[in-house]
Amino acid sequence: MDIKILWMYHDLMDLYGDKGNTEVLRYRSEKRGIQCIVDTCTIGEEKDIRDYDLFFLGGGADREQQLIFDDLLKRKDNIREAMDAKTAFLLICGGYQLFGKYYKDQDGTVIDGLGFFDYYTESSDRDHRCIGNIAVETTMDNETFQAVGFENHGGQTRNVASPFARVLYGHGNTYSDGTEGFMNDQVLATYMHGPLLPKNPRIADAILKRALRKRYGEVALAPLDDTLEDKAREIMLKRLKVKK
Ligand code: GLN
Q1: Distance CA 54, CA 118 (A)
Q2: What is the CATH number of the domain that holds 208?
Q3: How far apart are CA 208 and CA 202, in angstroms?
Q4: Residue nearest (by alpha carbon) to ligand 1 atom 5
Q5: Residue 207 is part of which domain span?
Q6: Please, is 55 exposed, middle or buried when counting C-beta atoms within 10 Å of its C-beta (0-12, 13-18, 19+)?
Q7: Which atom of ligand 1 lies at the shortest distance from residue 94's CA?
Q8: Mind telling me the catalytic residues?
């Protein structure tokens, strides 16, 4: 069994250790005897996205988003085909924003998103930038659990049909609406850097299962020893006073 990951714009969209997400997916696959191939793709490079089980796009500042959006839009049909072929998607922050209708930055410059989903993002004023640790509650694979991360975005994302999580501490999609990210059966899009997966192994396994589903159907993953990861998350939840 193997899993093929395509890390898009690895050289431009990699804020706050988003790269760690690919490392955790590789580690958790290989521990279970599943070979994990992480391929990269940047501006102008030819890759057929349908060949991959997971499309991963990290976060980037406004400058990087402006650099990549033309290239990303050129790949729209190919991304749609990959989506139709049941590829899983993990999108962080700037990557999340670019799958919606548009992103309007603080200077009023609008860049088009892929428009796959109805949400859109407009930058807040400087007093309402969403920065800091974040804790959320989400449900994946019929299990409800708490997750932690770090966010830093001016973008306020609205009109999200199905949020990924409920905010327990921090901001999420907007400064104060209490929702975080977007999720459907194939796509998990979130503002949580940190990076997301090393801090939240349950999310990592849910992503692995989504990616494996494309070629292998439902796969049961053997449990791993997450004692240290769980302890680190508990400490953060206590520090944020989400837990006593
Ligand atoms: N530039 C976007 C914003 O500030 C995304 C930032 C990010 O990816 N952390 O909203």
Answers
A1: 22
A2: 3.40.50.880
A3: 10
A4: 94
A5: 2-239
A6: buried
A7: 8
A8: 93, 193
In a domain, 220, yes or no: yes
Is residue 230 included in any domain, yes or no? Answer: yes
User: Best mutation site among 63, 153, 156 for ligand 1, i.e. most ligand atoms within 8 A of its Cβ?
Assistant: 153
Instruction: Examine residue 99 and state whether it is found in any structural domain, yes or no.
Output: yes
Binding pocket residue ranges, ligand 1, CB within 6 Å: 15, 59-62, 65, 93-94, 152-155
56 pLDDT exceeds 90? yes
Edge-to-edge strands, sheet with 165-169? 143-153, 130-140, 165-169, 179-180
Model confidence band, residue 161 (pLDDT cutoffs 50, 70, 90): very high
- Number of domains the chain contains: 1
Q: Provide the β-strand partners of residue 161.
A: none
User: What confidence tens digit (pLDDT) does each residue in 105-145 have?
Assistant: 999 999 999 999 999 999 999 889 999 999 999 999 999 99
Residue 244 lies inside a defined structural domain of this protein: no
CB-side exposure of 219: number of CA atoms within 13 Å?
Answer: 23
